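Lab meeting prep.
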Amino acid sequence: MTEEKLGIRLSRIKISNYKKIDSLEFDLLPPLIEGDADILLLGSKNGGGKTSILECCSLLMLAGLFKEQFKGRFRRDETLLDIANLLVKAGQEITNIEGEFDHNNKSCKISLEINRREGFPAPTIEGDESLFDINKKDGLNIFDYPLNSIFSFLGEPLIIPPLLHFNSYRKVQESNPELGMMADDYPRSYNIRRSSGMRSIVNPVSSFKLEILRSLMGQASLFEDSDKEKSQIILSQLNSLIQRYCGGQIEHLRPLPDNKVDIRIKPIHENESFSFDGLSSGQKEMIATLFLIWKNTNEHPSVVLIDEPELHLNAEWHGDFVRQLYKLVPHNQYILATHSEEMFRSVDERHRSILMPDGDQ
């Protein structure tokens, strides 16, 4: 693996008074040798803090990517005051999260404070801030999309390379995309509503299905600015996953009323196609998660966080999922929170950690 291909990585994290976590600090060890997987599997009982660690990792990266958007926001009168109350440990007033990041010869430390009464002040960044000048998303509203996804108010993964976060409530929506959605700038196309003092997002269709639609249209050169060769590569990778996990391929669309289209899968040895929504939840999640990671990080190495990657999967696929992650995109840093013993056994002891409550140690 070349140094240029490596992406930003989180090397250390320290958390205090976050949800049920009193105090936690640990290093995320890099691979021992070139070509080894940069992966950490976190395990614990329910309520042990796995999901909280993933949330803190994402918050630190958002602080690095969108430092300016933290300034002057999240005051007592802002909508995210409810979030601050949710995150600060009961009986405490302030949560502190610190993380150390590195990329090639650059490094920086980010400190983020969450105040129960005052919300989120501006984060403190020490070191080389240019480390986060990587594929930045200008103008992204940090209120709406990232935090709704991280805290599972939205069933869509957070995809803003160099950060991908798949929450445990993710789901490929059983709905059909409209052709007009291809022109929208995801995720800004999401409908926004206000509920209980906080803005939430209503996702009309899965982002994964929009990626399929764009790839099919691009391959057919139906749009002026489409890259046919790139679309063919994307569709080929998608179909390799579909063939692996359901024995078919996406070949065409079926028009539906109201300008919608149904994505069809044709089995390899059969004549009749069926709707993508006809797949099991496990097949859809396996295909969608692996594809979105490959599509968004193949050229942009990222930190990829996945809560319960075994979601909807049968036991035989648990270890295969981890192996496919590294096979498809080996240059990412992966941090996974899981209950699966099979997933734990699929990696070396150096790449796994069991979280134990203080009373159990």
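Slide two material, second protein:
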Amino acid sequence: MRIIEACFTPSLGGLELYCLNTAKQLQDRGHQVELWLADGSRTLQHPITEDVPTRIFREPGYVSPMFCWKANRQIQNQPVDVIHLHRSKDLAPFARINDVSRVFTLQIDSTLKKRDIFHKYVFAKADRILTITDRMRKLALNNLPVRADRVFTLHYGIDIDKLKEDKHAGREFRMANGIPEDSFLIGMIGRLEHGKGQHILLEVLTDLVGDYPNLHVVIVGDPPPGNEGYDEELKAQARALNIADRAHFTGFILNTADAYNALDTFVLASKKESFGLVLLEAMALNVPIIATNAGGVPEIIQHGINGLLIAPEDPGALKNVLLQLLEEPQLRIQLAGEGKHIVREKFSLNLHLNRLLAHFEEAVAAHT
């Protein structure tokens, strides 16, 4: 199958990584894949763009005649079966691309109603819409001008076999970041922004270090474009709380498996979270999880089964469940073990790709 994976955001977060990884995974399966990315985007810095043929465009707007002309010309020269899109803003410039199927994976929660004439036209051009959670599918049906028989849930999947438990790599990660080998390490991995709740974990750490002197936190990631300097704000908060020696900041790293392997507990403290791919990664690497009961997270984490759920923006609740995991090592083992089982059964990459390709084929068949 000939596939374009298109994503014109300037950022490099979960949505963009899904696009990049999907392109590489489909290519590895023998499909002809090309990435279409925006000039100046941080996605262009990712090594996958060296492995997958990549075409760079100036980021198109909602109405972009020049982009449409270039895209149509390119597709006439090199015919394509399906274009896979990853954000609603990119639907508009692709609506006028001729003779090709369009599949849109909706990855961001939104309660905005978009049923005006413009959006009716744009969404009518999508042969199939995939949502990463059941909750998001319901939102799409309520708020978008889409037919129910064109909207399907497709959860993310991860390559479990590539995520190997490696305690030696975990120790090396600790050493490289000045984290004591015998510490109890709590970690957060993801974009640094207020809604992700890193500041809440730092606040809770202040309350716990008196009773647990070996407690440390590592925060992996950097601020997205438009939020520059937030990492420095978090570091300043740690200094103000007198926990700078226990709060470790790594910045953005590509190989996050080493970080997971270093952790005793993983925390997702987001105010809003469409899915939480980091949860699957932590589960695959046998790390017990605390997560907020936000967005699509309850479709991944069952409270008391493969993790502990708390309300968003509730430092007291986070403190209580952290205390529970600190005091109950058997509970940590139980949650981590069940998490590893669930991610293999429900969220494997192989299962995800099989279903994604089936959607592509059905979209192509419906389009012709």
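Talking points for slide two:
The chain has two domains: 2-157+348-367, 161-346.
The two ends are 15 Å apart (CA to CA).
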